[in-house]
Design a protein that fits this description.
The complex is a heterotetramer of chains A (629), B (108), C (483) and D (177).
Chain A lengths: L2 H19 L5 H21 L1 H6 L5 E11 L2 E9 L1 H24 L6 H20 L3 H19 L6 H32 L4 H9 L5 H18 L8 H4 L5 H10 L4 H8 L1 H5 L2 H22 L5 H21 L3 H28 L17 H15 L5 H16 L1 H26 L18 H16 L7 H4 L4 H6 L14 H26 L12 H7 L4 H34 L1 H15 L4 H22 L1
Antiparallel strand pairs in A: 1-2
Chain B lengths: L9 H21 L3 H26 L5 H31 L13
Chain C lengths: L2 H15 L5 H17 L1 H7 L7 E8 L1 E10 L1 H19 L9 H17 L3 H22 L4 H29 L7 H5 L5 H18 L8 H8 L2 H26 L4 H24 L4 H21 L3 H32 L15 H15 L6 H15 L1 H26 L18 H15 L1 H23 L4
Antiparallel strand pairs in C: 1-2
Helix pairs in contact in C: 1-2, 1-5, 2-4, 4-5, 4-11, 4-14, 4-18, 4-19, 5-6, 5-11, 6-7, 6-11, 7-9, 7-10, 9-11, 10-11, 10-13, 11-13, 11-14, 11-19, 12-13, 12-17, 13-14, 13-16, 13-17, 14-15, 14-16, 14-18, 14-19, 15-17, 15-18, 16-17, 18-19
Classes of the chains: A mainly alpha (629), B mainly alpha (108), C mainly alpha (483), D mainly alpha (177).
Chain lengths: 629, 108, 483, 177
C-alpha cells in the first residue's frame, strides 16, 4: 500500500470508527483511538522522510483514481509526498498528536468525546488531503473539508446558539474565499488544461503565459487564502471561532488550518514569483492584517480572543514574508508559529480548565503559584512569540523583518511596530493571567489546580520545540550557509528564490531593533500590568474603546453587507416575488374574469342555446367545406 | 317502381327529406316542450329514413342495405322514444314542467 | 423497456383498488421500475457505449405513419431513468398510507409518465407523457394540500399548462415541416428552420421548459406549490419533475431549434444567473423550511440551466450529474422536513431547535444531506457544481462570479436551516422526543448517494458521458458551428 | 309550376302533405294536435315508401311509428295532462334564430346535394322491399346487429321501467301534492 494512502487512511479510519461506534465505546477507548490514529499517521510520515531526503527531487506519488474525466481532461484524485508536503504533514500530524493527547484529558468531562475525536480526526484527514493532494482539486477538497470540520468543531457545543452563529460565520467567510479559489482554478484549467501541480506550475515557470493571466490567477487564489488564513477583510471569523473547544482553537485556528493559505502560496511559488502585482497586494494586505490584529489584541480581555488576534496578526506576518518573496521564511514562521501558538492555546486551555471554564483575564491573576508548569510553558511561548533572542520566534520573525527591510522600508517600519505591539499584548496577557494578585470574585484561588500529565506533557513538548524550533532554519549570519529548511525546500521551488543576505552591520542593526522591540514590550507591560490588583482597563473611551470593540469591523460588515442582503431578501420576497410577480401574472385574472363573464352569457347551461350553436356550427363547417374545398 | 314515376329523380327525394329534416330541426330549436322536441327528433329520423329508402331504390341494391338501416333506425327510435318519454315523465314528476329551458343545470 | 411505462400503470391501478397497503408491498410496487431497468442489461450496456446515440428500442405505428409509439434510450435517458426509479421507492418509503391513500397510485402513475418522458422519441409522444406526468401532481395538490389547495393547484395548472401548450404548438409546427409530417425525433431535428421560425419554435419549447424548471421570472407557481403541496408531492415535483424541463432543454430544445440558440443563449444565461442569486437571497430569509427549500431549489436549478446553456461538455456533464444530485438532495431535504414536521408538529424554524440532542442518527443523516446541498467536497453536490461553474466560467467570467455566489449563499441558508431546526436549545416540543428509526430508512438511501457520488462521480458520469458527447455533436452540427 | 311541372302528381301531393304535416307538428301550440299531425306525416311517408318499392317498410312504419310510438306519445300527453297550450311561448328573436340556423343548414345541405348528378331512378330491382328479400338479408348479413337490437330493446325497456318507477320519496311528494 502506498504510504500516502496509509497516512491518509489512519485519520479517516479514526473518523469512521469513532463516528460510527464511538458513542458505544468507553470514553478512554474512543479518545485514545483518535489520538493513536494521528500518531500512526505521524509515524508513517516520518518513516517516509528518508525516502524523500536522499533524493533531491524525490517524491512519492499516488494516483488513487480518476475523480472525473471531461473528454480527456482528467481530474484525478492523486497525491504526492514531496519536500513541501511532508514538512506540512509532519507539522499537522505531529502537533495533531500532541493536541489529541491533550484533548483526551481536556474533553474528559464532555458528554460526547467520541464525536469530538471523530471530527478532529476528520479534520486531520482533510488537512492532509489539502497538503498531500498533487493538484488544485484535491487541495480544494481538503480546503473545503477543513472548513467544514472547522464549522463542526466551532459549533461543537451545538446547544449554544451563539456558538452555532460563530461556526456559520466561519464557514461562510471561508466560502467567500473558496469562491475566489474556485474561480482561480477555473482560470487555471482554461489556460493550462490541467490542475496538476506538476503540469501547471512548470508551464507557468516557463514564463510564456501572459502576465495578466498569471496575476489574475494569483490574486484569485490569494482571495482563497485570505478567507482561510483570516486576512483583511475576511478575518473576523477567526476570533469568533474561539467558541470551539480550546484544542480545536490550538490545532485548527492556530497551528494548521489557518496556515493553509500560506501553504497555497508557497506551493504556487512559481506563479507568485512571476506576478509582482499580486505579491505587492499580498504584502500590503498582510501588513495591514498584522497591524490590525496586534492593535485589537492590545485591548482584549478574553484569553482566547487575545491569542486569536495574535494569530491573525502573525498570519499577517507570514503573508508579508510571502509578499516580499521570502517563501522559505514564511514557511519557517508557519512552523515556529505552529509550535508556540499551539503551546499558547493549549496553555490557555489549561488555564481555562484550571479556573473552571472562565476565560476573562480580568478575573484571573497570580495563577503562577497554582499552575507552575502551565506558567512556565506559557512563559516560554510568550517569549518565543515576542522574539526573545535565540528562541524560535526570534529567528523566524527576524528573518521576515530582514526580508522586508530589503524590500520596502515603510513596510519594515510598520511591521516593527506590529512586532512591538505583539510583545506588548503578549506580556500583558501573561502578566494579567499569572502575575499580580488574584482578582477572581466568584471563585477562590485555592480552587485553581494544575492540569494532569496528559495536558502538561504536550505543553512541555511544545515548549521545548518552541525553544529549539529556530534551529530548523538558522540564519545565514550564524551558519554562513543556508538554513536547513531553506536547503530542504530549495528543490521544490521552480523559480529560484532570491534570498537576501545582508552584511553583518545591517544584520546587527536589525537584530538590535528586534531585541529593542522585545524589551520595550516587556517593560511597558511590566510597568503597566504586573502588579495590577484591580481589573484591567475595559477600554471605555477614545482609542482604547475602538480597540476593545475591534474597530467595529463586525458592526460595519453587518451594516454594509449582512443587513442589506437580508433586507434584499425580505424585499425581494415580499415585494417582488409575492406582490409584483404574482401580481403581474395574476392580474390577468380580472381580464379572464371579464371574458369569462361574457362567455358565461353564451355558456349558460341551457341546452337549447347549445343546440343552436351546434347547428350553426355544423352549417358553418359544412358550408366552409362546400365553398372552400 | 311504378312506371308512372319513371321521371322521378333522386334529387327530388333529397330535397324532400332535407326540407323535412330542417323542419324537424327548426322544431327542436324552437319548441320548448320536451315531448314536442322528441316528436321533432322522430321527424328528423323519418326524413333520414326516407332518404335511405330512396337511395336503396336508386342504387337498385338487392341487398337492400339502405332499408336494413331504416329498420335499425326505427328500432333505435323506438327505444329512444321509450326512454325519452320515461325521462320526461320523471322530470315532470319532479318539476311539474316539461319545459326544457328549465333544465339549465349544465352551468356548473 | 416499454414495461417501464406499462407496469407502473398497471400497478397504479392495482394499488388504487385497495386503500390500506403494507408499506413493504408499496415498496415492491415502487421498486418495479428499478428492477425492470436493471433487468434490461443489454439495452443499458448498449446505451452507455462509445458514441451511443439516442437509439430506438421500441417502435409501433400509433397514429398513422406520422406518430409512432417510439421509445429510445441512451446514456442521458438511462441516467434520468435511474434517478426516477430510484427516487420513487425512496419517496414511497416516506408515505403514510393510512392518511393519504391516493398518493401511491398517483405516484406510480406519475412514474409511468416520467419514464415515458425520458424515453419518448416522438414529438407527440413526448408531449403526451409530459402531460401524463403532470396530471397526478394536480391531484396530489388538489387533494392533499395543507392550504389553499384549489388556488395553488389552479395556478400551478395554468402556468404549466400554458407552457405545455406552447410546446405542443412548436412540436406541431415542426411536425408539419418535417418529412412526411413525421414526428419522429430524428425527423424533427433535421427540419431546417429559418431564424425567425426557429425563434418562435424555440420560444414555445423554452416557455414550457422554463416554467417547469423553473427559470427566474417563471417560477411564480413554485414556492407556494412546494410549500403547500403534500411532502411527497413536493419531492416528486422538485426531485424528478423539474428534471423534465432540464431534460427537455437538452434533448428537445437544443437540437430542434438550434438556429435560435445564439439568440436565446445570453438571455437565458442572464435569467438563470439572476435566478441563482435571487433564489438564494430570498431563501436566506425564509422561516418555513419547505419554502426555504423551494427557493434554494430555484437557485440550484438556475445554475443547472446556466450550465446547459453554456453548451459545452462540462456544462452538459455537470448538468446531468447535478440533476441527479439535486434530485437526491432535495428529496432528502424534503424527507427530513417531513420527518421533523410529523414528529414535532412544525416546520417553522422559529418553533424548532435542539432536535439533534435526542436524535443523533437523524442529525447525522440530515447533516449529510445539508452538506450535500451546500456542495462540500466529498459529497455529491460538489462535482456537479464544480463542472457547472466551470462551464459557466468558460462561457463568461462575470456570470460565473455571480453564479458562484451560490456557494456562499447556499452555505448561509442551509446551515441556518440546520442550525435553527436541529441545533440550539430544545424547546418544549422538541425535548426528548425520538424519531422512530423506521422513518429514517429513506434518508439512508439518500446518504448513500451523497457519499458515493461525492467520492466517485466518475462511476456515475461514465453512464452518460458518451451520450452527452454525441448529443453535443448533434447540436453543434445542427448549429453549423462547432462550439 | 316550373320545377315541379314534370313531376308526377301523386308525388307532389304526397310531398305537399308531408311538409304540411311536419310544419303543423312544429307550429301547433296544442301538443295533441302536433301528435295527430305527426301521424299524418308518417302516413304520407309510408306512402312514399310504397312509391319507393319498400312495401314492407311502409307497413312497419305505420305499425311502429304511427301505431306504437305515437300512441305512446299521446299516452304520455294524456297522462301528464298536457293537452292544453301550456308551453311558454318563446320570443320572436328566438324563433328567428332557430329559423336562421335551420334555414342555414337547409341551404347548405341543398347546396351540397346540388353537386350530386340528377339521375333518374333505376327500377330494375323488383321485390327489394318485400318481406322475403328483407328477411333473408336480415337473417344472414345483419344477423348480429339484429341480435344486438334485441339487447338494445331489453336495456331500453329496463331503463324506461327504472326511470318510470317512483321512489318512495317521490310517492310521498306526489301524495302531498
Amino acid at each position: 500500500m502506498n504510504p500516502i494512502a496509509i497516512i491518509l487512511l489512519f485519520p479517516l479510519l479514526g473518523f469512521i470508527l469513532n463516528g460510527v461506534f464511538g458513542h458505544k465505546l468507553p470514553k478512554l477507548v474512543s479518545s485514545s483511538l483518535g489520538a493513536l490514529m494521528i500518531l500512526l499517521s505521524f509515524v508513517t510520515a516520518i518513516s517516509q522522510w528518508s525516502q524523500i531526503a536522499f533524493d533531491i527531487n524525490g517524491s512519492i506519488s499516488w494516483e488513487a483514481y480518476t475523480f472525473f474525466n471531461l473528454d480527456g481532461l482528467l481530474f484525478r484524485a492523486s497525491f504526492a509526498l514531496d519536500r513541501l508536503s511532508i514538512w506540512m504533514t509532519l507539522i499537522i500530524t505531529g502537533i495533531g498528536t500532541l493536541i489529541h493527547l491533550y484533548s483526551m484529558s481536556y474533553m474528559d468531562h464532555d458528554k460526547n468525546p467520541a464525536k469530538f475525536f471523530s471530527y478532529l480526526n476528520f479534520f486531520v484527514f482533510n488537512m492532509l488531503l489539502l497538503v498531500l493532494g498533487s493538484n488544485f482539486l484535491m487541495m480544494f477538497f481538503g480546503w473545503e473539508g477543513v472548513g467544514l470540520c472547522s464549522y463542526l468543531l466551532i459549533g461543537f457545543w451545538y446547544q449554544n446558539a451563539s456558538f452555532g452563529a460563530a461556526a456559520r460565520k466561519a464557514f461562510v467567510m471561508n466560502r467567500i474565499g473558496d469562491l475566489g479559489l474556485l474561480l482561480g482554478m477555473f482560470l487555471i484549467v482554461k489556460n493550462f488544461g490541467s490542475l496538476e501541480y506538476n503540469e501547471v506550475l512548470p508551464a507557468i515557470a516557463e514564463g510564456s503565459t501572459s502576465n495578466v493571466v498569471i496575476t489574475s490567477i494569483a490574486i484569485l487564489l490569494f482571495i482563497g487564502a485570505m478567507g482561510k488564513s483570516a486576512q483583511i477583510p475576511l478575518f473576523t471569523w477567526l476570533p469568533d471561532a474561539m467558541a470551539g473547544p480550546t484544542p480545536v482553537s490550538a490545532l485548527i485556528h492556530a497551528a494548521t488550518m489557518v496556515t493553509a493559505g500560506i501553504y497555497l502560496v508557497v506551493r504556487c511559488q512559481a506563479m507568485y514569483s512571476l506576478a509582482p502585482m499580486a505579491q505587492e497586494l499580498i504584502l500590503w494586505v498582510g501588513l495591514a492584517t498584522a497591524l490590525l490584529g496586534a492593535l485589537i489584541g492590545l485591548r482584549q480581555n478574553d484569553i482566547k480572543k487575545v491569542l486569536a488576534y495574535s494569530t491573525v496578526s502573525q498570519l499577517g506576518f507570514m503573508f508579508v514574508a510571502l509578499g516580499v518573496g521570502a517563501y522559505t521564511t514564511a514557511l519557517f514562521h508557519v512552523t515556529t508559529h505552529a509550535f508556540f501558538k499551539a503551546l499558547l492555546f493549549l496553555g490557555a486551555g489549561s488555564v481555562i480548565h484550571g479556573v473552571q471554564d472562565r476565560q476573562d483575564i480580568a478575573t484571573m491573576g497570580g495563577l503562577k503559584k497554582m499552575m507552575p508548569i502551565t506558567y512556565i510553558t506559557f512563559l516560554v511561548g510568550t517569549l518565543a512569540i515576542s522574539g526573545f533572542p535565540l528562541l524560535s520566534g526570534f529567528f523566524s520573525k527576524d528573518e521576515i523583518l530582514a526580508n522586508v527591510f530589503h524590500h520596502n522600508i515603510i513596510a519594515y517600519v510598520v511591521l516593527v511596530f506590529a512586532a512591538l505591539l505583539t510583545a506588548t499584548y503578549m506580556f500583558r496577557l501573561l502578566f494579567l493571567t499569572f502575575h499580580g494578585e488574584f482578582r477572581g470574585t466568584d471563585y477562590k484561588l485555592s480552587d485553581v489546580h494544575e492540569s494532569n500529565w496528559k495536558m502538561t506533557l504536550p505543553l512541555i513538548i511544545l515548549a521545548i520545540l518552541s525553544v529549539l524550533g529556530g534551529a530548523l532554519n538558522l540564519p545565514h549570519y550564524l551558519m554562513h550557509q543556508e538554513g536547513f529548511l531553506a536547503s530542504w525546500l530549495k528543490p521544490t521551488f521552480l523559480i529560484f528564490e532570491h534570498a537576501e543576505h545582508s552584511d553583518l552591520a545591517t544584520e546587527i542593526g536589525l537584530i538590535s531593533v528586534a531585541v529593542f522591540v522585545f524589551l520595550f514590550g516587556w517593560f511597558y507591560s511590566r510597568n503597566k500590568y504586573i502588579s495590577k490588583s484591580e481589573s484591567p482597563e475595559s477600554g471605555s473611551e477614545g482609542i482604547a474603546k475602538v480597540l476593545a470593540n475591534k474597530f467595529y469591523i463586525d458592526e460595519i460588515y453587518n451594516k454594509l453587507i449582512v443587513r442589506p442582503i437580508e433586507f434584499f431578501g425580505d424585499v425581494l420576497f415580499a415585494l417582488f416575488d409575492t406582490l409584483l410577480l404574482y401580481g403581474i401574472t395574476f392580474s390577468i385574472n380580472p381580464i379572464l374574469r371579464f371574458t369569462g363573464r361574457l362567455n358565461r352569457k353564451i355558456q349558460n347551461g341551457n341546452i337549447e342555446y347549445y343546440l343552436i350553436y351546434m347547428v350553426g356550427a355544423i352549417a358553418l363547417l359544412l358550408g366552409l367545406n362546400l365553398f372552400f374545398a | 317502381m311504378l312506371s308512372i314515376f319513371h321521371s322521378l329523380e333522386i334529387s327530388h327525394y333529397i330535397y324532400l327529406s332535407t326540407v323535412l329534416f330542417s323542419i324537424g330541426l327548426f322544431g327542436v330549436l324552437f319548441r320548448r316542450n320536451a315531448i314536442i322536441l322528441l316528436m321533432c327528433i322522430e321527424l328528423m329520423l323519418n326524413a333520414v329514413n326516407l332518404l335511405l329508402a330512396a337511395f336503396t331504390e336508386y342504387m337498385g341494391d338487392m341487398q337492400a342495405n339502405g332499408q336494413m338501416f331504416v329498420f335499425f333506425i326505427m328500432v333505435v327510435a323506438a327505444a329512444e322514444a321509450a326512454v325519452g318519454l320515461a325521462i320526461i315523465v320523471m322530470v315532470y314528476r319532479n318539476t311539474r314542467k316539461t319545459d326544457v329551458s328549465f333544465l339549465d343545470q349544465l352551468k356548473d | 423497456m416499454e414495461l417501464l411505462i406499462f407496469l407502473p400503470l398497471v400497478l397504479a391501478l392495482v394499488s388504487a383498488l385497495g386503500s390500506k397497503w403494507n408499506r413493504w408491498i408499496i415498496l415492491v410496487f415502487a421498486l418495479s421500475g428499478l428492477l425492470i431497468l436493471t433487468g434490461n442489461f443489454n439495452v443499458l450496456a448498449a446505451a452507455i457505449q462509445e458514441k451511443s446515440s439516442f437509439q430506438t428500442i421500441v417502435d409501433y405505428p400509433w397514429l398513422g405513419d406520422a406518430v409512432h409509439f417510439r421509445l429510445g434510450i441512451d446514456g442521458i435517458t438511462l441516467f434520468l431513468l435511474l434517478l426516477t426509479n430510484i427516487l420513487i421507492p425512496v419517496i414511497s418509503l416516506s408515505i403514510k398510507t393510512d392518511k393519504r391513500p391516493a398518493l401511491i397510485p398517483l405516484m406510480l402513475f406519475m412514474q409511468a409518465g416520467l419514464n415515458g418522458v425520458f424515453m419518448a422519441q416522438d414529438g407527440l409522444l413526448f408531449y403526451l407523457f409530459w402531460e401524463l406526468a403532470m396530471i397526478p401532481i394536480y391531484f396530489m395538490t388538489l387533494l392533499y394540500s395543507e392550504r389553499d389547495s384549489y388556488t395553488t393547484t389552479i395556478r400551478f395548472f395554468v402556468y404549466t399548462f400554458v407552457g405545455s401548450l406552447a410546446m405542443l404548438a412548436s412540436l406541431i409546427y415542426l411536425g408539419t415541416k418535417s418529412v412526411n409530417g413525421s414526428f419522429a425525433y430524428s425527423d424533427l431535428y433535421n427540419v431546417q428552420l429559418t431564424l425567425t421560425e426557429s425563434i418562435w419554435v424555440g420560444a414555445g419549447f423554452l416557455l414550457a421548459f422554463a416554467v417547469k424548471i423553473p427559470l427566474f421570472p417563471f417560477h411564480v407557481w413554485q414556492p407556494n406549490t412546494y410549500t403547500y403541496a403534500p411532502a411527497q408531492g413536493s419531492m416528486l415535483l422538485s426531485g424528478i419533475m423539474l428534471k423534465m424541463g432540464l431534460y427537455g432543454l437538452m434533448r428537445w430544445y437544443f437540437p430542434m431549434a438550434s438556429e435560435s440558440i445564439d439568440f436565446y443563449q445570453p438571455i437565458i444565461m442572464i435569467l438563470a444567473v439572476i435566478g441563482v442569486v435571487y433564489g438564494a437571497i430570498i431563501a436566506i430569509r425564509q422561516d418555513d423550511m419547505k419554502r426555504l427549500i423551494a427557493y434554494s431549489s430555484l437557485s440550484h436549478v438556475g445554475l443547472i440551466a446556466a450550465g446547459l446553456f453554456a453548451l459545452n461538455k462540462s456544462g452538459f456533464d455537470g448538468a446531468l450529474l447535478q440533476m441527479f444530485v439535486h434530485g437526491i438532495n432535495v428529496v432528502g431535504l424534503f424527507i427530513a422536513v417531513n420527518i421533523i414536521e410529523r414528529n414535532f408538529g412544525s416546520r417553522n424554524l422559529n418553533e424548532l431547535g435542539g432536535i439533534a440532542k435526542s436524535n443523533r442518527l437523524f442529525a447525522v443523516l440530515f447533516f449529510m444531506v445539508v452538506i450535500g446541498s451546500v456542495a462540500a467536497p466529498l459529497t455529491n453536490g460538489f462535482p456537479g457544481e464544480f463542472l457547472l461553474l466551470k462551464s459557466v466560467f468558460d462561457y463568461n467570467t462575470t456570470s460565473a462570479v455571480f453564479a458562484g455566489l451560490t456557494i456562499i449563499f447556499c452555505a448561509v441558508y442551509m446551515f441556518r436551516m440546520y442550525q435553527f431546526s436541529m441545533l440550539g436549545e430544545c424547546n418544549s416540543d422538541t425535548e426528548d422526543k425520538t424519531i422512530p428509526v423506521s422513518e429514517l430508512i429513506p434518508l439512508f438511501v439518500v446518504a448513500f448517494f451523497v457519499v458515493s457520488i461525492g467520492l466517485f462521480p466518475q462511476w456515475y458520469m461514465d453512464l452518460f458521458q458518451n451520450s452527452t458527447t454525441s448529443l453535443l455533436q448533434i447540436i453543434s452540427n445542427a448549429k453549423g458551428v462547432l462550439s | 309550376m316550373g320545377v315541379f311541372s314534370n313531376l308526377p302528381l301523386p308525388f307532389l301531393i304526397l310531398s305537399f302533405l308531408t311538409i304540411l304535416g311536419a310544419l303543423y307538428v312544429v307550429t301547433s301550440k296544442n301538443p295533441v294536435h302536433s301528435v295527430l299531425a305527426l301521424i299524418l306525416t308518417f302516413f304520407t311517408i309510408s306512402a312514399h315508401y310504397v312509391l319507393l318499392n319498400a312495401q314492407f317498410l311502409a307497413i312497419v312504419n305505420l305499425m311502429v311509428y304511427a301505431g306504437a310510438i305515437m300512441v305512446l306519445f299521446l299516452f304520455v300527453l294524456m297522462l301528464l295532462n298536457l293537452n292544453k297550450e301550456s308551453e311558454p311561448i318563446k320570443s320572436n328573436l328566438w324563433g328567428i334564430a332557430a329559423a336562421i340556423s335551420a334555414g342555414l343548414l337547409l341551404v347548405v345541405i341543398t347546396a351540397a346535394f346540388q353537386t350530386a348528378g340528377i339521375a333518374v331512378m333505376k327500377s330494375n330491382a323488383e321485390g327489394i322491399g318485400l318481406v322475403k328479400n328483407l328477411g333473408r338479408v336480415l337473417m344472414t348479413e345483419y344477423l348480429v346487429p339484429f341480435e344486438l337490437t334485441g339487447i338494445l330493446f331489453v336495456s331500453a325497456m329496463v331503463g324506461a321501467v327504472l326511470l318510470g318507477k317512483r321512489d318512495k320519496n317521490d310517492i310521498v311528494k306526489s301524495e302531498e301534492i
